[in-house]
Amino acid sequence: MRVLIVEDDESIALIEQKALEIEGFEVRVHASGAEAVETIASWAPDLVVLDQRLPDMDGREVLRSVRLTSYVPVVIVTALDDEALIVESLDLGADDYVVKPFKIPELMARVRAVLRRTAVIPERDGPISYRDITMDDRARRVTKAGVELALTRIEFDILRLLMRRPGDAVDREEIAGVIWNMPAARIGKSLDVHMSVLRKKLGDDPKAPSYIETVRGVGFRMGES
Amino acid sequence: MSDPPDDEIVTPEAQRLHDLRQPLSAILAAASALQLHTGLTEEERDAFLNIIVRSAERLSEMLEEPGAPA
Hints:
The structure holds 2 protein chains of 2 kinds.
Chain A: E1 2-6, H1 10-22, E2 26-30, H2 33-43, E3 47-51, H3 59-67, E4 74-78, H4 83-91, E5 96-99, H5 104-120, E6 128-130, E7 133-136, E8 141-144, E9 147-149, H6 153-163, E10 169-171, H7 172-180, H8 190-202, E11 212-215, E12 219-222
Parallel strand pairs in A: 1-2, 1-3, 3-4, 4-5
Antiparallel strand pairs in A: 6-7, 7-8, 8-9, 10-12, 11-12
Helix pairs in contact in A: 2-3, 5-7, 6-8
Chain B: H1 12-36, H2 42-64
């Protein structure tokens, strides 16, 4: 698999490159945003590790340009631990972020997690439906009876995981791993809270949910196999 | 470094923290890579150790500059 590193600090770029190569990735490195945008178009990497501040462009500008033509997964690396900046980058289409200073195992884990999330659902797949719910992956849009639902990123990702596996009981460990890259025990009530809100948005009856069923002792199931 | 967009205000303190994080990040990344990957070649290990030393020196210089925290 191909990874493009966009980083103007040579030392950090070298360390990231070696670590990724050891994990078996084919790696290219660019120090400028403009070169990165060109290479994403011509080389089609499977993932981009993008520094937030580059000599020629802000990371958000790079993201905006890239998202016009590509759904390549992007992990942002930022030295500004600024919540608003991180939220904006995620809203612009970044898939995850790492704040400097970081340890290499953390970066590698995030790269693997993002690749897992995007590998489960190949981007070429077309829209999928269950009853009156339709999901368009590419547009990241979900409609119920033709009306668009306002889902958060996590709600969307959970729903996508379930809709792509119709009839399968998807266990909590798998959901926690794919969505949060953590064991289920580490995420506390997060999954239940998100599931409750997601069901509400889908119009499910909280006492007897029919869109997303609870599989006792396992996890959740949607649709029929 | 690129200038932040017009609607973003980066305070001098935030800028300073940003600048300090660069060498610190290189140190932590290089050291953790050395810990994680025991199979690095001698050349790669030397390169990573050099990064740690150079970055620590840079950090030390930055902390000596006027305006650095006491």
